[in-house]
Design a protein that fits this description.
4-stranded antiparallel beta sheet, 37% strand
Amino acid sequence: MLVLTKTILYNKLFLDSAYAFVGFTGFEGRSVYPVLKQDYISNGHPATQNEIDCYMAACGFGKLCDGRYANDKYELWDVFPKNVLKDESGDIFVIDLEISVK
């Protein structure tokens, strides 16, 4: 799936940690890559697996196995503490994951 298509899907699901398009970079005559950014999560630290499971359930996703969740439209994976932050207020932010349309 194209990077920008995955980014649009991600932003649809996780607006609080949405990616913003900055521009393009690449190698002359060879490749072009989009440059994306996310807001910095101040004082963020990895969420626990239990916090992630609860958050994903609240977002309407059922757990398939460790790090993998799905609903009737999407399947998400690589949803581990290294990719999910919790700020000092207790808010959860998904900062990186893989996504596919079912």
